[in-house]
Amino acid sequence: MASAGWAQSELRGSWQYPDDAKAIRWQQAPKPYAANGLPEGTVQRVTRYRGHGLRMRNPNGAGYWEFEEVSKLYYRGRLFAIVGNATGINDAGDGSLGYAATLVIYDEDGDGKLESPEFVGGKDLFVFHVPSWVRVTR
């Protein structure tokens, strides 16, 4: 669901990547992205959002994660993760929960839903993983 410059998951009880087309302010052209654990050929597309950003339900607690900008990661043309800095927003969407976090959120099974968040901040060395469905040769 997109509304007033931000997008959020339509399914309140589950975690999914919302349709963010109406919330996008701009996107950079795709370019190579190299990091620990990612195969050669991984591409990122930096996306900046309007207004309050991209909001996604926090599956591990109350409220939403709000992203102003994310790097969408693709391999062989398929989105498998997003990376970004998120701020905790309350359920009403009008106040901060007082925390920020750097997250990677993966689509583990190839269904187009990003259902597996992993916190990046505070780790000396973060190693990405590539879901098995992405590595399958097509």
List the defining traits of the structure above:
globular; 10-stranded mixed sheet; mainly beta; 44% strand; 3% helix; 1 helix; 10 strands; single chain
Sum up the overall morphology in one term: globular
- Average pLDDT: 80
Helix content: under 10%
Q: How many beta-strand runs?
A: 10
Contiguous runs where pLDDT drops below 50 for at least 5 residues:
1-16
Radius of gyration: 15 Å
How much beta, percentage-wise?
A: 35-45%
Q: In the residues, how many domains can be counted?
A: 1
Cα end-to-end separation: 32 Å
Oligomer: single chain
How would you spell out the order of helices and strands?
Answer: EEEEEEEEEEH
Number of helices: 1
Report the structural category. Answer: mainly beta
Query: What is the makeup of the main sheet?
Result: 10 strands, mixed
Give an overview in words.
The chain has one helix and ten strands, in the order E-E-E-E-E-E-E-E-E-E-H. The protein has 138 residues and is an all-beta fold. It has one domain. Strands 1, 2, 3, 4, 5, 6, 7, 8, 9 and 10 form a ten-stranded mixed β-sheet that branches. A hairpin with a 6-residue loop joins strand 8 and strand 9.
List the helices and strands and how they pair.
Elements: E1 2-3, E2 6-7, E3 24-27, E4 31-32, E5 43-49, E6 53-57, E7 64-75, E8 78-89, E9 96-106, E10 116-119, H1 132-135
Parallel strand pairs: 2-6
Antiparallel strand pairs: 1-2, 3-5, 4-5, 5-7, 6-7, 7-8, 8-9, 9-10
